[in-house]
Amino acid sequence: xxxxxxxxxxxxxxxxxxxxxxxKTGRTEYGNMRASLKPFLKVCGLDEAATFGxxxxxxxxxxxxxxxxxxxINSTVNRIKRCFRWAASEELIPASVDHGLRSVASLQPGRTxxxxxxxxxxxxxxxxxxxxxxxxxxxxxxxxxxxxxxCRSRSLCMATAxxxxxxxxxxxxxxxxxxxxxxxxxxxxxxxxxxxxxxYMGSGPEAFLFNxxxxxxxxxxxxRYSSGAYAYAVRRAIQRFNAAIGPSxxxxxxxxLRHSKGHAVRNE
Length: 268
Known about the structure:
The protein is mainly α.
């Protein structure tokens, strides 16, 4: 039965409880969902969910424009619409609410006051090499491996020995990745990347290769890096390098290593 008098807050609470289980293998998206919906509740939480419409969603979107990028706003609005789509599928709200919210198009470049973020650029090896000097050996190996292979940060953080076929001169890696439900991904691993992996392959087939506890026996550490913790380690290394030498290398993120590899391949 459709619940006509349910508030948006109640619908969001039910959805987040569902999402916590649905995204259990992708905790980053669940965290992003919570981060998108919590500010939304402060503005629209007391609204009646059964009558929430496109105009109200656009009003909330306008509030986001002064302080956020166009990409962030579109992602946030899409997550809000995903919440209401789920509620409609569970017959918690009329299906017409979902249909109406789907009519809200994404903000287009050049047609909004929301700021544009610059395109992600590749990072040169000289900058990466300088950063390696301030990283722990484990994180330095993660950075070097990602530079050689061009994989996603999250896939690398979740790498286990069972994902690798280590027969022959060229190893094959079938990583976890964000589109794995739609397509398989196989990455070739050459000799230099193999040499980085060998020291981490002996902890069992399902153990995470790049375990922070390897470098310090501390149970407070997780069994693997998150992509956020990995990026933070790189950021702190850059800060230490610049503090010691003077501002000399720009800040970069591990995501740029993937772009660097793609740029190099296109050039070749």
